[in-house]
Amino acid sequence: MKKIVLPEYNTNVLRAVLSLRVEEAPIPKPKENQVLIKVHAAPCNPSDIAFLTGGYNVVKNVPAVPGFEGSGIVTEAGEGAEEYFGKKVSFFTQQNEDGSWAEYVCTHKSDLVVLDDKMDMDQAACFAINPFTARGLLDIALLQNTPAIIQNAAGSQVTHFIRLMASELDVKVIDIVRKEETAKKLKKQGAQHILLEDDPDFDMKLKKLSLKLDARLAFDAVAGSFAGRLINAIPEGSELVVYGGLSNKPVSDVNPLGLIFHDKVISGFNLGSWRQLLDDEYFEEISKELQEHFISGAYQTTIQGKTSFDEVSKGLSAYLKNMSEGKMLISPE
Ligand SMILES: NC(=O)c1ccc[n+]([C@@H]2O[C@H](COP(=O)([O-])OP(=O)(O)OC[C@H]3O[C@@H](n4cnc5c(N)ncnc54)[C@H](OP(=O)(O)O)[C@@H]3O)[C@@H](O)[C@H]2O)c1
Fold first, then answer.
1. How far is CA 326 from the centre of its chain?
2. With a threshold of 0.85, does the pTM exceed it?
3. Which atom of ligand 1 is nearest to the CA of 126?
4. What is the pLDDT of residues 208-241, one digit of tens each?
5. CATH fold of the domain at 2-127+301-331
6. Regarding beta strands 239-242 and 215-220, do their DSSP bridges make them parallel or antiparallel, or are they unpaired?
7. Strand (E) or helix (H) holding 70
8. Residue closest by Cα to atom 7 of ligand 1
9. Which atom number of ligand 1 is nearest to the Cα of residue 326?
10. d(CA 304, CA 298)
11. In degrees rounded to 5, what are phi and psi of residue 114?
12. Mutate to test the pocket of ligand 1, among 133, 323, 327 (most ligand atoms within 8 A of CB)
């Protein structure tokens, strides 16, 4: 089989992307409770980009095969995973093993989402992480009964799903973007409250709008000093949930007085820990509900293109230039 290999980590993301190479390798054998998946496609997510630079939570021994999710068919099942043989799946893989940017990959049965036959396999390639992440974040909004939320990097796929889910629940959304063109796109899609990061009055506008809409929950995918700007601007008693680190910088510039005297809280969210809190039955229920939305077309991941293994560096460079255009799928087919 063929696989994409990262020879070594490189803090310069473009150099890391350009260093990717295609190698031949034997098809792996699934161990106990694992399955072998013939991969249909796998996306490149911001977590993959962080991984290529050595800046992610998962650091594998290099050379390594990147890719934390994908879609495909189970072609072999290890002992204890026989029930998955022949199933269409979306999958997740974060162990120190080869990732999804390969023709075949092994993963643990607990990291599979079994798919309805009607699921489109390109959409399924981006199904195991982002829609569930949006759902997990929305669960926090529901628990807190907040009438409105704030989210930055709002041209992303996660924030797209959050907007869709929030509108079903009548929760208002304040979207923050860094590019005028992204703001225009969101406006066309019906987003009502859009703020531009580099607006000179950004902090004042966010303060006013979040007070007006009573937005007491902010989802931060950027971190760095932006996290500080968010928590400083949002109302008393608000929570900032950091779920991404797109700036590659530590959370900073937080006014401690807000935390001490104004009941503001900073917390973190990750999909894996949220998933572990759910019992399997509830997770299945969420998965079924999300799949129905995908099958009906109500929910879709925007896909900007597909790249072959041989053109992977070119494809990923295009994604890096404009992430808000949608996912770039890596396809062995
Ligand atoms: N914690 C979890 O469990 C979890 C799970 C899934 C995703 N995430 C996180 O969720 C975030 C979105 O993921 P995704 O797959 O939805 O992203 P995506 O669709 O690939 O889009 C990335 C978005 O981030 C914007 N962006 C990139 N760097 C930025 C920066 N420094 N400042 C502001 N905006 C920036 C891009 O805007 P431009 O077009 O302007 O570049 C683009 O809109 C990522 O941080 C990801 O790591 C977390």
1. 12
2. yes
3. 15
4. 999 999 999 999 999 999 999 999 999 999 999 9
5. Quinone Oxidoreductase; Chain A, domain 1 (3.90.180)
6. parallel
7. strand 69-77
8. 130
9. 19
10. 18
11. -75, 135
12. 323
